Amino acid sequence: MGHMIKVNVNGKEHSGGVEARTLLVDYLREDLGLTGTHVGCDTSSCGSCTIHIDGKAVKSCTMLAVQADGCNVTTVEGLATNGNLHPMQEGFKEEHGLQCGFCTPGMMMTAIDFLKTNPKPSEDEIRHALEGNFCRCTGYHNIVKSIQYAANKMQTSV
Questions:
Q1: FRET partner for 40 with CA separation of 20 to 30 A, picked from 25, 61, 64, 125?
Q2: Could you give the CA distance from residue 105 to residue 102 in angstroms, rounded to a whole number?
Q3: How many CB atoms lie under 10 A from the CB of residue 139?
């Protein structure tokens, strides 16, 4: 393999060789077996591949694995702690924010990053923050409610 990389994914160090052309989403799914990060469009339009790189939401279908060398990566699999759901995961469960679930990981990762800068968003602000994430099953109503649930829960746990 062409390039050696070392990344911390969900708190665990991974190192190995990757081809220069390997997309980060493919590295996560194929090399590490973290299939919660989805490939929906291959053009960065749908947001289903959204993960966190050093705490910021990034569409992993537009980033090469070699660009993640030395970074901390969080995928949807890394959200729960000690068997307890992250408030965003809990919100999507409690408020029925998913149907088929394909877009859900990307929606959650985008929303978590958004709530860092806007912890008490309005419905319109949430909808605007999700403009780069598409859901083909819902009308976004329950997704917005799920994010509001998580925002409230994250505020009370601070």
A1: 125
A2: 7
A3: 8
The half-sphere exposure of 1 on its side-chain side, counting CA atoms within 13 A, is 15
Q: Which residue has the tokens 């088929």?
A: 100
DSSP H or E segment with residue 141 = helix 141-156
Split at pLDDT 50, 70, 90, the class of 158 is low
The SS3 assignment for 130 reads coil
The separation between CA 33 and the C-alpha centre of its own chain, rounded to angstroms, equals: 16
pTM (2 d.p.): 0.95
* Sequence-distant (≥ 6) Cβ neighbours of residue 107 within 8 angstroms: 47, 50, 92, 97, 130, 133, 135, 143
Whether residue 54 contacts residue 71, with contact meaning beta carbons closer than 8 Å, is answered with: yes
pLDDT digits (tens, 9 = 90+) for 60-85: 999 999 999 999 999 999 999 999 99
What does CATH list as the number for 87-156? 1.10.150.120
- The span from the CA of 18 to the CA of 66, in Å, is 7
Please tell me the CATH code under which domain 3-78 is placed.
3.10.20.30
Let me know if the fold of 3-78 is the same as that of 87-156: no
First CA to last CA across the chain, in angstroms?
A: 45
Place of tokens 């601070």: 158
